[in-house]
Amino acid sequence: MTRLILPALTASLALAACATPAPPTFYQPAASPQGVGFSEYRIEPGRYRVSFHGGPGAPPEVVSDFALRRAADIALAEGYDWFRVSDRFMRGDGGSPGSQISIGVGGGNFGWNGGGAVGVGTGFNVGGSAPSLISTIEVVMGKGPKPQGTEVYDARGVAQSIGPHA
User: Rounded distance, CA 65 to CA 119, Å?
Assistant: First the structure.
């Protein structure tokens, strides 16, 4: 029985080593509508809808922070000092299909005869892997002293405190 388990275990470990983890989420422009990164839409002067699409498994805090960072960068580029988040929501895209490896060991005793077996299999998880999150915020930008409120952010402070890496 040991002679059967060792090759199966070795094969399964070799296959598991081929699995690659999800790439990290970086602060970058999205290369496509479904790509990881930021995008924005100018609604009117001083008002934008900003989205950040995280990679599979990116923490919600990182995805939200990168959307705020993009809003701060836009505000600073256009000469604004602060921005107010007037609307925000987060959604998931369900993730992408992933692969899985399974190992099975079994045995039985049928009177005078006994038997054992080891199985190794691979499959595809149709339920998907970790979902990708998309944070979307609508922001209104302003100049001068920052107004009071929990949804009002100093653009320079956000740009300095939220780094470009997750």
Answer: 45
Distances (CA, A) of 111 to 2, 78, 115: 22, 83, 11
Cβ atoms of 83 and 143 closer than 8 Å: no
Q: What is the pTM of this model?
A: 0.67
State the first-to-last Cα distance of the chain, in angstroms, to the nearest integer: 47
Among 57, 62, 17, 20, residue whose Cα is nearest residue 38: 62
CB contact burial 41-63 (16+ within 10 A = b; e otherwise): eeeeebebebbbbbbbbbeeebb
Q: Rounded CA gap, 69 and 161, in Å? A: 9
Report the SS3 class of residue 154.
Answer: strand
pLDDT digits (tens, 9 = 90+) for 94-145: 654 555 455 555 655 656 666 666 666 655 545 455 679 999 999 999 999 9
